[in-house]
C-alpha cells in the first residue's frame, strides 16, 4: 500500500510540477507566439493588400469587441497618416471556411485591397483564390458598403472558372466584412485617431 | 505568473491516472511468472517493437519462456543482456550456453530434383515442394542457415551439410528459425541430455538401436578425423560408463549397421572402447559440465549401471544426488557380476570416480529394507527416489537335490568370488570343484565357466537345454569359452541332482531334448526325448538360468507393500516403460529392477530416461515422453534391404590374449585396437543418416 | 569498462546512429524529411528534448520509483516536448508549421524513451548529457542526410534554412531543365529512399 | 465532410501508415509474421478508437474550457498511457481469452505514434464526437490493412533472393514504399 501511495504521489507531484512549468513558459511566450502567428498567417496577406504602407501593420494592431467576439484590426499608414484599417471575416466554401482580409480606406470607405488567408479548398481550383491575384483584385476600389455577388448571381465579381462555390464564399466574406465595418465604424475611427497622434 | 488552472489540471490528471492505475493493479491482479516483470524491467521499456516482439512485455514473456535470448532488446545495452541472463540463471537449462548443432549427418546425397525458377533456398523448396528429396526429415543443403547466421559461424562443409563453428556460434537461434526441416538445433546441454530419440529425428539405424541412444555416427566420425576427445564427449552425453560398455557391451547397434547388409558391420563398440581407453590413458579427465544447482535432492538406491547413469544425468541436470548401495563399492553387477578378466576393476573404479567427481554422494554398505526404508529417505528431505536395485536373485531349477553341498547359483557364485577377490583376497578362496557343471546359456553361465577355468577347474561343462544357436550369451563370449576348452552339452534338461550320504553333489541327471515347433520367442521349443535320462559326474554345480530383482525390502514397509506395484516377474512396474515412474509418483525405477536381467547399456539408457522423468517431475512438468518417441524400434524408412556401391573392407579383428596365457589369470583377455586400426575402422562407417534421396523413387 | 564522455558522445554519431543502426524513430524520419531544413529542424527539436529529458531523468533517477518510472519518463519527456512546441512557435514559427504534428510526436519517439530508460536512468548527469547530445546529433544528421537526398532529387533544391526574406541553400541544383523526381518527396519515396540508404549503410558497414 | 468520406479518407487516401508516416516502428517491427501483424492490427483498432474518444472528451470538456490547449501533448500521452495500461490489466483479469490474443500488443501501443498522432490530428481538425469516433476507427482499420498486407508481402520475401546488404529492414522499407505507391492510387477518390 505504501508503495502505491508513493507511486501516486510521485506521479502527481511530477505532473503538477510540469503543469506549473509549462503554464509559466506559456505565459512568458504567449505574446511572442501571437505576434509570430499573426506575422506568418496573416502577415503575407496583409502585406500584399497594403502595398506601399509606411508602418508595420502587424505591430500596429488593436482589438475591438463585436458582441461576444473579439476582433482584431490592423492599421495601415500611408504617407504617415493612419487612414486604412484591415479586418478579417470568412465565408463558407467547398471544404471549409474561406478567410478573407479586407483593407478599407476610412477616408472614403473604399476597399484598398483584399486577400484570402485560410482555406481548405480543392487544390488547383478553389485554392486559386489565394494564389490568383486577379480574382481578389476585382474588389480593389469598390465601396465597402456594397453587397458583393458573383456575376452568375447578378453581381459584379467575375467568378473563377470552375470554382464558383469558392468565389461565392469570398464574396460572402467580403460582404460580411462590410457589415462588420459599418457596425464598428465609430470605434474604428476613434482608434485610428490614436495611431495618428 | 503561474496559471493556477494549469497546475491544478495537471495535478488532477496525474493523481487520477496514478490512482486509477494503482487501484487497477490491485483489483485486476493476475499472477504471472515474477521473472517476466524483472526481465521487462531490464528491457528499454521503449516498446519500439524493434526486437520483433510486440513490445517489451511480450519480449520478456518470450525470454522467460525460453523463446528469445537474453540479448533480445536492441535498445538496451549489453548490461541489460547480462542482467536478464542473470535473472534467467535461476532456471537450470536456460542459463547454460546455447550452441547450434547440425543434426543431419546425411547419407547418399542426390542432385536437386527440381529447380523452381532458379530458387536455391531450403525455405523455398520446403514451401514449394514439401522437400523434394526422398528423405522426409533430412538436410536440403542450400544453406539457408548459412545465410541466416549473422556471426559467420556456419559453413556448408565438404559433404554438403552445414558445419557449425562453435567458437563463433552465440546461440542466437537464427539458423534454427530459418531451417525448414528443424535440422539446426539450438539446445542447451540440459536440453540435449533430456532428449529422447524421436521418429522424426535424423538418426542412423545404429543410433536408433542403441538402448542408450548414443550418437554413434557422430563419434565414429569424430574418431575418423582424430577428434578422440570430441568422440568421448559425444558418448558421454548418453553413456557415463563407456569404459565398461566398451568392454562388455554386446553392441546391438552393430546388428543394424547398414554396412552389415553387404559387408561386415562397423566394429562400433571397439571404437568406443578405443576412445574411452584413450581418455583414461591420456592421464587427464575431460571436463564434464554441470548445470546450475536446482537445490533438489534425489536418492538413488543401487549403484549399478542404472543407478550410476541416473545419478550422473541428474547431477549434470543440476540436482543433488546420493547413491545408496548395499555393496562396499559402486558398480553393482558390473563390479560383482562381471569377472575381472572382462572388466578390470581398476578401469571401472576410474570411471566411477569420474561420476562421483561431479559431486555425487555415495553411501556404501546400506541396503534398502535392511538399513533404511523409503519413508526415511523422504523424511530426510529427498524429493524423489530412483530404484536401481538390479536383478540379483537367481531363479532355481525346481528339481530335487538342488540344495546339496556343492550346488551354487550363478550370481551367488560370481559375487562371492568377486567380493573375495576385490575385498579380502588374503582370506581363504571360495570353494572350487574339479569337475564343474554350469547349467544355463546366458552370459552369467559363460562368466561362471570362464571364471572356473581360470580358477583351475579340471573340467568345466555347460549344460544347456537348447542348441548353441539359441544361447542368449554374447557370441564373442561363447567363442572365447570354446577357445578356453569348455565342454558344451546342448539339448539337455536337468531333472535331478544326485548327492552322496554326506550331502555333497556327485551327479547331475538330465533328459536329452530335441527341437520341436518354434515358440513365442521364435526359438524352436526343445521337447524331451522319453527315456533318455543321462547322468554327468560333478562336484560343483552352478545354476545360472536367469535372475530377477530381489524385492525383499517391500515386506519391510506397509506403504510399499500396498502401493508399489510389481509385475509378475517381480520387477518394479511402471505405467510407461519410457517414463519409468512407478505406482508411487516420487519413485522411479530402471535397469534390471524394472525389466529383469538385461544388458548394461539398456540399464544405462534406462538411467537416463528415469533421470529425465525425475527432472521434469521435480519441475512440475509433464513427464510423459513425446508421442513420437522411438523406443526399441526403428524408423521404418531407415531400414534397408540392400545398400549399393560398397567395396568390401574387412572388419577389424578384436585383439585378444592368447588362450594359454589368459586362462591362467584374470588379466583382461580382450585388448584395445590400435590407433591405426581405429582410424581404419571408423572410415568403414557409411556415415548414414536417413538416405536423402532414393534414386528409385521418381 | 566505462566509456569516456567523448565516447558516449561519438557513439551516437555512427556506431549507434539511431534510425539506421537500430531502425528506431522512423515516423519523423520518414515524415518530415522532404527538405534538409525540415530534417535539421526536427532533429534539433528532438535533440533538445533528448538532452533535457536526459538531464532531468539522470538527476531524478534515485527519486523515481521503478514501478512508475516509465510513466514518469513520459511525463518528463512530454513536458519538454510542450516546451519545444512553445519555443518553436515563439521563435521559429515557419518551421513549426512545416513540422506540424511531428513535434508533439517526439513524445512517442522510441529513441527518446529508449535513451531515457536505457541510459539516463542508469548513468550520471554528464554522461547522460553526452549521450543525449550524441544520439540527438546523430539523429539530426540522419534526418538531414535523408532530407538532402529527397530534396535534391525530388525538388531539385538544397534548402538549409529559410528566413522570412531569403533562403540559405542552393536552388535548382541540376539547372532549370531538370524535371524533379517528385516521387522522392512524397510518401513512397520516403520509404524507398530510407531503404536504399540503409542498404548503403550495410554495404559500408560490412567492409 | 460526410462519414463515407471520413472512412475512405482514413483507410485509403490518408492511410496513417503509408501516407501520414505514423506508427512506423511497429509497422516494421511486427510485420515479420502474419500472426503478429493480425494481433497488432486488432489491438490498434481497439485502442485507437478508445483513445480517440477519451482524448476528445478530455479536449472538449477540459482543455478548451480552461484554455489549456497548449498542454494537449502532455495530457494526451498521460491519458493514453494510463488507458492502455488499464485496459491491459482489465483484459488480463476479466477477459483472458481476449487478452491472450491482444494483450501482448497493448503496451506496444502506448508509444505507438499512430494512436497518439491520430488523436492529435482529430482534435486539430476540430471534429465532433461522432466524427472523431468514425475517423479513429477508419485510421485504425487503415493501419491494420496496411500492416496485414505488408506482413503478407514480407512473408513471401523470404523466398526471394535479396542481396545481402538489402536484406531484412532495408528491403522491408523498399517494399513499404511500393505498397505506399499503390495506396497513392486512392488519392483521386476524394
Average pLDDT value of chain A? 74
Estimate the mean pLDDT confidence of chain D: 82
Strand count, sense and barrel status of the largest sheet of chain A are: 5 strands, antiparallel
User: Looking across the biggest beta sheet of chain A, what order are the strands in?
Assistant: 1-2-3-4-5
N-to-C terminal Cα separation of chain A, in Å? Answer: 69 Å
Q: Profile the largest sheet of chain D.
A: none
Q: Percent helix among the residues of chain A?
A: 40-55%
Number of separate structural domains of chain D: 1
Describe the structure.
- The complex is a heterotetramer of chains A (197), B (698), C (207) and D (190).
- With 197 residues, chain A is an alpha+beta fold.
- Chain A has one domain.
- Chain A is 46% helix and 22% strand.
- A five-stranded antiparallel β-sheet of chain A has the order 1-2-3-4-5.
- Chain A is elongated, with a radius of gyration of 22 Å.
- Chain B is α/β, with parallel strands linked by helices and 698 residues long.
- Helices cover 35% and strands 13% of the residues of chain B.
- Chain B has 27 helices and 20 strands.
- Chain B has a five-stranded parallel β-sheet with strand order 7-6-5-8-20.
- In chain B, helix 15 runs antiparallel to helix 27 and helix 20 (410-423) crosses helix 21.
- The relative contact order of chain B is 0.12.
- The model of chain B is unreliable at 90-96, 109-118, 129-134 and 693-698 (pLDDT under 50).
- With 207 residues, chain C is mainly alpha-helical.
- Chain C has one domain (5-202).
- Helices cover 64% and strands 4% of the residues of chain C.
- Chain C is built from nine helices and two strands; from the N terminus they run H-H-H-H-H-H-H-H-E-E-H.
- In chain C, strands 1-2 form a two-stranded antiparallel ribbon.
- In chain C, helix 1 (5-11) packs parallel to helix 8.
- The two termini of chain C are 26 Å apart.
- The model of chain C has no long low-confidence stretch (mean pLDDT 81).
- The N and C termini of chain D lie close together (10 Å).
- The longest helix of chain D has 30 residues, at 34-63.
- At the C-D interface, helix 3, helix 5 and helix 9 of C face helix 2, helix 4, helix 7 and helix 9 of D.
Task: Spell out the blueprint of helices and strands.
The complex is a heterotetramer of chains A (197), B (698), C (207) and D (190).
Chain A: H1 2-49, E1 61-66, E2 69-78, E3 81-92, E4 97-105, E5 110-116, H2 128-131, H3 133-137, H4 164-196
Antiparallel strand pairs in A: 1-2, 2-3, 3-4, 4-5
Chain C: H1 5-11, H2 18-22, H3 26-31, H4 36-60, H5 69-91, H6 93-99, H7 110-118, H8 125-155, E1 158-162, E2 167-170, H9 187-205
Chain D: H1 3-13, H2 24-29, H3 34-63, H4 72-94, H5 96-102, H6 106-110, H7 113-124, H8 129-157, H9 169-184
Amino acid at each position: 500500500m505504501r508503495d502505491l501511495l508513493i507511486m501516486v504521489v510521485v506521479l502527481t507531484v511530477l505532473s503538477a510540477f510540469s503543469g506549473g512549468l509549462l503554464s509559466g513558459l506559456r505565459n512568458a511566450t504567449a505574446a511572442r507566439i501571437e505576434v509570430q502567428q499573426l506575422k506568418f498567417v496573416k502577415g503575407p496577406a496583409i502585406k500584399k493588400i497594403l502595398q506601399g504602407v509606411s508602418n508595420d501593420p502587424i505591430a500596429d494592431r488593436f482589438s475591438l469587441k463585436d458582441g461576444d467576439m473579439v476582433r482584431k484590426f490592423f492599421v495601415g499608414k500611408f504617407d504617415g497618416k493612419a487612414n486604412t484599417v484591415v479586418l478579417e471575416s470568412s465565408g463558407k466554401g467547398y471544404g471549409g471556411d474561406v478567410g478573407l482580409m479586407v483593407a478599407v480606406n476610412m477616408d472614403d470607405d473604399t476597399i484598398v485591397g483584399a486577400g484570402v488567408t485560410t482555406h481548405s479548398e480543392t487544390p488547383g481550383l478553389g485554392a486559386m483564390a489565394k494564389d490568383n491575384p486577379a480574382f481578389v483584385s476585382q474588389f480593389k476600389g469598390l465601396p465597402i458598403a456594397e453587397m458583393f455577388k458573383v456575376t452568375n448571381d447578378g453581381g459584379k465579381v467575375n467568378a473563377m472558372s470552375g470554382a464558383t462555390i469558392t468565389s461565392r464564399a469570398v464574396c460572402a466574406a467580403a460582404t460580411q466584412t462590410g457589415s462588420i465595418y459599418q457596425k464598428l465604424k465609430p470605434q474604428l475611427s476613434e482608434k485610428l485617431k490614436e495611431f495618428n497622434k | 505568473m503561474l496559471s493556477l488552472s494549469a497546475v491544478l489540471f495537471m495535478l488532477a490528471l496525474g493523481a487520477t491516472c496514478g490512482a486509477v492505475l494503482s487501484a487497477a493493479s490491485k483489483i485486476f491482479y493476475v499472477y504471472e511468472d515474477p521473472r517476466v516483470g524483472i526481465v521487462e524491467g531490464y528491457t528499454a521499456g521503449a516498446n519500439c517493437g524493434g526486437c520483433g516482439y510486440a513490445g517489451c512485455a511480450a519480449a520478456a514473456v518470450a525470454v522467460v519462456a525460453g523463446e528469445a535470448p537474453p540479448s533480445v532488446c536492441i535498445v538496451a545495452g549489453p548490461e541489460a543482456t547480462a542482467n536478464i541472463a542473470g535473472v534467467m540463471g535461476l532456471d537450470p537449462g536456460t542459463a547454460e550456453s546455447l550452441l547450434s548443432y547440425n543434426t543431419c549427418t546425411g547419407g547418399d546425397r542426390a542432385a536437386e530434383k527440381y529447380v523452381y525458377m532458379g530458387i536455391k533456398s531450403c525455405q523455398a523448396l520446403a514451401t514449394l515442394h514439401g522437400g523434394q528429396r526422398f528423405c522426409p526429415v533430412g538436410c536440403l543443403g542450400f544453406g539457408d542457415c548459412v545465410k541466416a547466421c549473422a556471426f559467420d559461424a556456419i559453413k556448408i562443409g565438404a559433404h554438403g551439410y552445414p558445419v557449425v563453428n562453435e567458437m563463433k556460434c552465440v546461440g542466437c537461434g537464427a539458423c534454427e528459425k530459418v531451417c525448414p526441416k528443424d535440422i539446426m538445433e539450438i539446445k542447451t546441454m540440459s536440453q540435449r541430455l533430456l532428449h529422447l530419440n524421436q521418429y522424426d529425428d535424423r538418426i542412423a539405424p545404429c543410433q536408433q538401436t542403441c538402448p542408450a541412444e548414443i550418437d554413434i555416427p557422430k563419434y565414429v566420425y569424430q574418431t575418423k578425423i582424430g577428434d578422440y576427445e570430441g568422440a568421448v564427449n559425444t558418448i558421454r552425453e548418453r553413456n557415463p560408463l563407456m569404459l565398461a560398455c566398451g568392454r562388455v557391451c554386446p553392441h546391438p547397434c552393430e546388428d543394424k549397421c547398414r554396412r552389415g547388409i553387404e559387408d561386415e558391420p562397423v566394429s562400433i563398440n571397439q571404437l568406443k572402447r578405443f576412445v574411452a581407453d584413450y581418455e583414461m590413458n591420456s592421464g587427464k579427465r575431460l571436463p564434464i559440465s554441470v548445470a546450475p544447482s536446482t537445490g533438489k535432492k534425489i536418492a538413488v538406491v543401487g549403484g549399478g549401471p542404472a543407478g550410476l547413469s541416473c545419478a550422473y544425468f541428474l547431477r549434470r541436470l543440476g540436482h543433488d544426488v546420493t547413491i545408496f548401495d548395499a555393496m562396499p563399492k559402486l558398480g553393482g553387477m558390473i563390479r560383482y557380476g562381471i569377472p575381472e578378466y572382462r572388466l578390470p576393476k581398476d578401469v571401472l573404479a576410474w570411471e566411477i570416480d569420474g561420476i562421483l567427481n561431479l559431486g555425487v554422494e555415495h553411501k556404501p554398505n546400506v541396503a534398502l529394507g535392511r538399513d533404511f526404508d523409503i519413508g526415511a529417505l523422504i523424511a530426510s528431505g529427498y524429493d524423489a527416489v530412483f530404484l536401481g536395485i538390479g536383478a540379483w536373485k537367481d531363479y532355481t531349477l525346481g528339481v530335487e537335490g538342488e540344495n546339496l553341498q556343492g550346488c551354487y547359483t550363478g550370481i551367488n557364485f560370481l559375487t562371492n568370488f568377486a567380493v573375495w577377490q576385490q575385498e579380502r583376497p588374503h582370506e581363504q578362496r571360495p570353494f572350487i570343484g574339479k569337475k564343474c557343471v554350469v547349467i544355463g546359456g546366458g552370459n552369467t553361465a559363460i562368466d561362471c565357466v570362464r571364471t572356473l577355468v581360470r580358477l583351475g577347474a579340471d573340467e568345466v561343462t555347460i549344460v544347456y537345454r537348447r542348441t548353441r544357436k539359441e544361447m542368449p550369451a554374447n557370441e564373442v563370449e561363447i567363442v572365447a569359452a570354446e577357445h578356453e576348452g569348455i565342454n558344451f552339452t546342448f539339448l539337455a534338461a536337468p531333472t535331478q541332482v544326485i548327492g552322496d550320504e554326506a550331502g555333497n553333489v556327485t551327479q547331475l541327471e538330465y533328459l536329452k531334448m530335441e527341437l520341436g515347433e518354434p515358440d513365442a520367442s521364435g526359438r524352436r521349443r526343445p521337447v524331451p526325448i522319453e527315456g533318455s535320462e543321462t547322468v554327468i559326474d560333478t562336484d560343483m554345480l552352478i545354476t545360472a538360468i536367469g535372475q530377477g530383482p530381489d524385492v525383499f525390502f517391500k515386506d519391510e514397509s506397509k506403504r510399499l507393500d500396498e502401493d508399489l506395484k510389481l509385475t509378475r516377474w517381480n520387477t518394479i512396474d511402471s505405467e510407461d516403460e519410457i517414463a519409468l515412474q512407478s505406482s508411487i509418483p516420487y519413485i522411479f525405477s530402471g535397469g534390471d529392477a524394472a525389466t529383469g536381467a538385461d544388458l548394461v547399456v539398456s540399464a544405462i539408457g534406462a538411467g537416463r530416461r528415469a533421470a529425465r522423468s525425475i527432472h521434469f517431475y521435480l519441475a512440475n512438468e509433464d513427464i510423459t515422453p513425446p508421442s513420437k518417441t522411438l523406443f526399441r524400434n526403428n524408423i521404418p524408412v531407415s531400414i534397408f534391404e540392400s545398400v549399393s556401391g560398397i567395396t568390401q573392407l574387412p572388419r577389424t579383428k578384436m585383439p585378444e590374449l592368447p588362450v594359454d596365457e589368459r586362462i591362467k589369470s584374470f588379466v583382461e583377455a580382450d585388448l584395445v585396437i590400435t590407433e591405426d586400426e581405429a582410424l581404419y575402422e571408423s572410415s568403414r562407417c557409411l556415415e548414414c543418416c536417413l538416405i536423402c534421396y532414393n534414386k528409385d523413387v521418381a | 569498462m566505462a566509456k569516456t564522455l567523448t565516447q558516449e558522445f561519438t557513439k551516437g554519431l555512427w556506431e549507434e546512429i539511431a534510425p539506421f543502426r537500430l531502425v528506431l524513430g522512423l515516423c519523423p524520419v520518414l515524415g518530415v524529411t522532404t527538405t534538409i531544413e525540415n530534417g535539421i529542424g526536427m532533429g534539433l527539436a528532438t535533440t533538445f528534448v533528448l538532452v533535457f529529458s536526459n538531464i532531468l531523468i539522470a538527476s531524478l533517477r534515485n527519486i523515481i520509483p521503478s514501478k512508475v518510472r516509465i510513466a514518469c519518463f513520459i511525463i518528463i519527456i512530454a513536458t519538454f516536448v510542450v516546451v519545444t512546441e512553445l519555443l518553436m512557435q515563439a521563435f521559429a514559427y515557419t518551421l513549426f508549421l512545416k513540422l506540424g504534428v511531428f513535434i508533439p510526436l517526439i513524445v512517442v519517439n522510441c529513441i527518446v524513451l529508449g535513451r531515457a530508460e536505457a541510459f539516463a536512468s542508469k548513468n550520471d548527469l554528464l554522461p547522460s548529457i553526452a549521450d543525449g547530445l550524441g544520439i540527438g546529433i546523430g539523429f539530426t544528421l540522419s534526418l538531414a542526410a535523408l532530407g538532402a537526398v529527397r530534396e535534391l532529387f525530388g525538388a531539385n533544391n538544397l534548402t538549409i534554412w529559410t528566413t522570412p526574406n531569403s533562403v540559405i541553400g542552393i536552388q535548382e541544383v541540376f539547372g532549370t531543365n531538370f524535371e524533379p523526381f517528385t516521387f522522392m518527396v512524397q510518401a513512397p519515396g520516403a520509404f524507398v529512399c530510407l531503404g536504399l540508404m540503409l542498404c548503403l549503410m550495410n554495404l559500408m558497414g560490412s567492409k | 465532410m460526410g462519414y463515407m468520406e471520413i472512412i475512405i479518407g482514413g483507410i485509403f487516401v490518408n492511410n496513417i501508415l503509408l501516407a501520414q508516416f505514423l506508427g512506423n516502428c511497429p509497422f516494421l517491427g511486427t510485420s515479420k509474421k502474419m500472426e503478429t501483424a493480425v494481433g497488432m492490427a486488432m489491438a490498434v483498432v481497439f485502442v485507437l478508437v478508445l483513445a480517440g474518444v477519451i482524448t476528445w472528451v478530455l479536449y472538449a470538456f477540459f482543455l478548451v474550457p480552461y484554455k489549456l490547449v497548449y498542454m494537449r501533448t502532455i495530457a494526451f500521452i498521460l491519458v493514453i498511457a494510463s488507458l492502455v495500461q488499464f485496459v491491459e490489466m482489465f483484459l488480463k483479469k476479466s477477459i483472458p481469452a481476449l487478452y491472450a490474443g491482444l494483450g501482448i500488443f497493448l503496451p506496444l501501443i502506448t508509444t505507438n505514434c499512430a494512436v497518439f498522432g491520430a488523436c492529435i490530428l482529430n482534435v486539430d481538425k476540430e471534429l465532433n464526437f461522432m466524427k472523431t469516433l468514425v475517423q479513429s476507427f477508419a485510421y485504425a482499420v487503415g493501419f491494420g490493412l496496411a500492416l496485414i498486407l505488408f506482413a503478407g508481402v514480407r512473408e513471401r520475401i523470404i523466398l526471394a533472393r535479396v542481396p545481402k546488404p538489402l536484406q531484412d529492414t532495408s528491403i522491408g522499407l523498399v517494399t513499404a514504399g511500393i505498397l505506399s505507391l499503390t495506396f497513392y492510387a486512392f488519392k483521386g477518390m476524394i
